[in-house]
Write a structure and sequence with these properties.
This protein is mainly α. The protein has helices at about 5-10, 30-35, 45, 55-65; strands spanning about 15, 25.
Length: about 70
């Protein structure tokens, strides 16, 4: 995830700036998931943050569409 967004989510901030320099309001699941997306975890590790593998993929796609994922 975009490091600035990860840091702000880890601090519990409900808004962050995406890669397009737009303000994004974060939902509770985004505040929980974003700090974990630092490249050290596998999808298997991240599944604990979602009810199903499909839900995890949907959440990751949503973060990508909001320009909160980098790399």
């Amino acid at each position: 995830a975009f490091s600035f967004a990860r840091q702000q989510a880890a601090q519990g901030r409900s808004t962050t700036t995406n890669l397009w320099h737009e303000s994004v309001t974060l939902e509770a699941w985004q505040l929980e998931l974003l700090p974990l997306l630092d490249g050290t975890r596998t999808r298997g590790d991240l599944r604990a943050q979602a009810a199903t593998a499909t839900e995890l993929e949907e959440r990751l796609a949503s973060l990508g569409a909001a320009a909160l994922l980098a790399g």
